[in-house]
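Batch 3, record 17
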Amino acid sequence: MGKLMSVLEAIEPIKDGDTILVGGFGPMGYPGRVMRAILKQTELKDLFFVANAANQNYLVALEKLLLTRARGMIATFTRPSAAAEKLYKEGKLEIIPQGTFSERIRAGGAGIPAFFTPVGFGTAVEEGKIKMTIDGREYIMEKAIKGDVAIIKASKVDLEGNCFMSGCTKNFGALMPAAAKYTIVEAEEVVKPGKIDPELVTVPGILIDAIVKVGA
Amino acid sequence: MGKLMSVLEAIEPIKDGDTILVGGFGPMGYPGRVMRAILKQTELKDLFFVANAANQNYLVALEKLLLTRARGMIATFTRPSAAAEKLYKEGKLEIIPQGTFSERIRAGGAGIPAFFTPVGFGTAVEEGKIKMTIDGREYIMEKAIKGDVAIIKASKVDLEGNCFMSGCTKNFGALMPAAAKYTIVEAEEVVKPGKIDPELVTVPGILIDAIVKVGA
Amino acid sequence: MALDWRNFVARRVAMLFKDGDVVNLGIGLPTLIPNHIPAGLKVTLQGENGVLGLGPAPPLHEINKDVFDAGGAWATLNPGGSFFDSAVSFGLIRGGHVDITVLGALQVDREGNLANWMVPGKLMAGYGGAMDLITCAKKVIVAMEHTNKGDPKIFNKCSFPLTGAKCVDIIVTNMALIEVTDEGLVVREIAPDTTVEQLKAATEADLIIPDDVKVMTVY
Amino acid sequence: MALDWRNFVARRVAMLFKDGDVVNLGIGLPTLIPNHIPAGLKVTLQGENGVLGLGPAPPLHEINKDVFDAGGAWATLNPGGSFFDSAVSFGLIRGGHVDITVLGALQVDREGNLANWMVPGKLMAGYGGAMDLITCAKKVIVAMEHTNKGDPKIFNKCSFPLTGAKCVDIIVTNMALIEVTDEGLVVREIAPDTTVEQLKAATEADLIIPDDVKVMTVY
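Prediction for the assembled complex:
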């Protein structure tokens, strides 16, 4: 079976309790079609979300899932989001620096279980983490993030799953497929293999499991 | 002053004792013009080279510099190279796995002082390194590589230093500029800013200090 | 034509840039800065959302929905610009390849500590990319109104949770330009319409005011 | 037409591939394998030098000097292929996104240890990308001549410095297909022209030969 499928087929493997990585910098690169399908066409629960932001105005399906069907979230910026405030009060929201967020996901995909960074030293971010002085400067150890599922959006995808993400839409979606066991990409444009310049492939097709074509 | 300059101007800031990162996978992506200038038009000595390979047939200037003017080298594959054999016998050649080589250089450029990898565990590579069990698997800690100078080759470069490296020539040269204080790129094609598609920039110009145009 | 205080601060910050600088601008007041960068000075604007070479906002009919700044505003790309993912973007930031970051603050203190991500019990925004930027950029400039509706924002010690420890280099406000030094907060310039007494009253932190303090002027 | 022993081994290895596999092939004998992958089986070849979707070698007049494999041989790119730098390439490898790696060996042993980077006192080649590949690929297949001019290469314990510890899954030679298990080396198939006695004589390691051992055949 090919990778191009309906949104319902694409989300079928997702299970209760799964950790889901969601691409996008605000609404740009956010896979709204697939997220709406999870909200409206499944009863999935106890989900853990890894997404740069929560935003009740722009990321509506994510907001609603966070409110009622999430066991937690890792994010870097969550304003405005009533759902994130609720999770935060319940101790279920981990707020981390955006560079650490990106690097932890990249590490998850690249077989790096942990790395050191100076970011967060001397702040609440360092709490509970291993610290080390390396060549005279102090660092904290951060661990890789991996997920069961990644859901991303591409500008263009070929039938083997090779993704091109235009301009600033690469952000986190470019990193998430390698860090997840199963990846769904949504795109408005689906083309034949070879129709994306091999120099312009943002995510290689070997990391993509399901392609959902959405209306332009 | 612009970044485009003669090879002698470009290599002028290099000092005795410098650590020099040299791009290329074998002869592909290897900056032969600049390396020959260092060999023939300077008396620089006590240099430390970081390059994927030594090869007396294909990387001739590097081979000669290694023989007489190097205090050491980090590489992944050095056959055939009489210079590398000599350095190895003198305890001045560090052979490391190619993925660790790449990642240590990337880390050097990306402000990551150290990271963990499973590669090399149970082999000579682990000797003298910090080990850690993370989520039940054993890893070794590897430290970033940084250099004083990076010398790389690009397929095309614009006057601001933005580099496009075609096909498989990206290899290590794409990673080295961020890890060095001073970077020289050689290229056969030098174009105006804006003439390289912003999606095709392999190395952003902010990381490039000197551009040397070489004959096609 | 007199500048309003926000553009006055923005222009004074722009005057701190040097040719070749790579600069990251936060949301709010810092977004005014590009209008004040002198023509002929080559400054490359970085957006942590994955772009180098940000240009001015486009006319509405020329928007490219894939080109925007880290505040989510539509932008353009200058010739010589480039796009990349967030791991590359923060690799550039963490690796020290951004020369200057300019951002706002809720609180700054005498040690250069900065708080701008939450007000306990009231507001929880998150770090976004600010923590990486202020920890790793070569120079950190806070650009803000000197007070919050009359309440001081510059303290001997921040009370809100920190975004970064000992990271701020320069504070530029509508009242003064202040340098964070090992000795404490040194006032280098005072705005023309501000007296030393007004400045001290608007600042909780102890200030060092050298004899050669200058009047804050912009071109 | 009978295959020579190298192509016999290459074809037997190719028969181990499954649809959708991402495969990295080492230098030497493994470079023969692409000729034996059945049409219709979708196998993506990765080169650690920064490429996915390697195709066959080009005719001399169609060489693109920027497209080559990890052995430095000119190659082509299949539709759907892509290029990337070495950090991305080894990110894919270390991250477990390469399903199978096939490579040669100087020595292999009963625990699945592999040595192929140096002969003490004689040869020092280096690890290249082999150490990353055999540590991180989901399946590691050694493809080689069973002996080195009659001297065994499969031991109870490697004497040369290791390239990887406990990493080999399957050994395919001109004499046998051997699986590395927790119990030891289990011979699954013996080549048609080889007897059990010949196999044991050519192997230093203890071998487990089950009753249901098969004749090694290729299509």
